[in-house]
Amino acid sequence: MAQLVKLLDYVSRYEQDLTRYPSQYIRLKRYQWERMKTQWESGADLSEWRREMEEVEEPEESKWFSPLLRVFGQRKDVEAEQNHSNCEEEKSSEEDDFGFSLNVIHNPSTLEQLRKVYLDQLFHFQIKWASSTIMDKSRVDSRFLRDTLLRSFAQQLPDNYLLFYYPILLLKKAPVELDIIILTPVECMCITVLEQQDVAAFSGSGDRFWLKKLGEKETKLLSPLIALNRTEKIISGIFKAQEIDFPVRKYLISRNGYIDHPGSAFDVDIIDRRAYDNWFSSLKKMSVPMKSTQFKAGQAILDLGQTTSISRLFGEENYTEEEK
């Protein structure tokens, strides 16, 4: 599962330490899967674990101080005050349930069903981690829980991918929403999505407007390359300013439509429904470990991210907008 680092302008746990948190995430994911799989194989009825799924917006302040939050708070204090001789205690914290609760209606009958249940539950927690810290939380739009593209990126791409989903950056004191950014170990992918009705055909040129055809109906739309080029230009400028040597590539994708761009732009990879599955499969196969340059690139983007959050301690009246 890719690591959801930034979602819009939500406060993110990754902002605290981008180099440390990914390894924690990977350990948590593996530990919880092995734990659930072992119980299922031993014949435990997982439907007995059912709890009501926590709402994206939790009205009760106390809920935000869940075991997940307490564990990370304790681990932070332990690391600040103790040295490596305390690895026994650290391991104990690491093996806590991290606030992970199942919402299983029917006991899975196959390992594949079990895995799907686990990934669906973990997806909700990915969004929580990308919208909360120990002290702050952001109001999450529930549409992200139904966003099939976000879910496919988060659930199916490798752990070594860092996902920025329409991040809002603060540039010259003005908020700017970018398109999707994925940092792989070898490149920065700037992605613009062109999806409307199924099997719509999009015809582009060098003009400011493209043509969308659906049956006999034709309509104009703003060229998607405008947003894509803007995202690439901003990201490339950030990397240049920080002297980060990391390739930036542009992708225009559509899972359900056709894209026809005569003399296709030489610096844009166009992926429509005819090639999407093969392209996405190739992304899932990357086994290169995470790189230091990848972390530097991610941190450079996070450093300019706008964060809108609410203090968990004092509630709505402590609404803050942090400008980095």
List the helices and strands and how they pair.
Layout: E1 3-7, H1 21-41, H2 67-81, H3 87-94, H4 111-129, E2 136-137, H5 148-156, E3 162-165, E4 168-171, E5 174-177, E6 180-183, E7 188-193, E8 201-203, E9 209-214, E10 217-222, H6 224-241, E11 248-253, E12 258-260, E13 268-271, H7 276-284, H8 292-302, E14 306-311, E15 319-323
Low-confidence stretches: 50-99, 317-324
Q: Tell me what portion of residues adopts beta-strand conformation.
A: 15-25%
Oligomer: single chain
Mean pLDDT: 80
Helix content range: 25-40%
Task: Please state how the strands of the largest beta sheet are arranged side by side.
Answer: 1-3-6-7-11-13
- Helix/strand/pairing class, anyone? alpha/beta
Please tell me about this protein's structure.
The protein is α/β, with parallel strands linked by helices and 324 residues long. The protein has eight helices and 15 strands. It has helices at residues 21-41, 67-81, 87-94, 111-129, 148-156, 224-241, 276-284, 292-302; strands spanning 3-7, 136-137, 162-165, 168-171, 174-177, 180-183, 188-193, 201-203, 209-214, 217-222, 248-253, 258-260, 268-271, 306-311, 319-323. The strands form four sheets. Strands 1-3-6-7-11-13 form a six-stranded mixed β-sheet, with helices on both faces. Helix 1 (21-41) runs antiparallel to helix 4 (111-129). It is globular, with a radius of gyration of 21 Å. The model is unreliable at 50-99 and 317-324 (pLDDT under 50).
